[in-house]
Amino acid sequence: MDFLIENWMLVAVAVGSAVMLMWPALGGAAGGAGVSPTEAVQLINREKAAVIDVCSPAEFAAGHVTGARNIPLDALEQQLPQAVKNKATPLVLVCASGMRSRRAVAIAKKLGYDKAVSLSGGMAAWRGANLPVQKA
Known about the structure:
By secondary structure, the chain is α/β, with parallel strands linked by helices.
């Protein structure tokens, strides 16, 4: 006990380091699951995940993941149940940067799509990984 009292700054640094190491895992659980472009491709190929682009129609037309459906974020709650009827189907939600798709994951999970994930980094990360982009 004397060691902890005498070296309280060392203990504080150790605890802070542990929290910082755990931060990505804790942040992912709180903000909705995010996947890398590689993990998204695996979900699409192995589990037949549906890709939903929550960008505006203009952004979608400029370039999107091949085979993605466009449902703007503000219409997601109304249109998602018609677009993907099976709630057990994995969903990969995509936007330009990954911010809107994280909000879309929360909406999808509220609707009962428990396997909904966000593409971390959005279309920027998809293009950065040199994956195919389709233009409408």
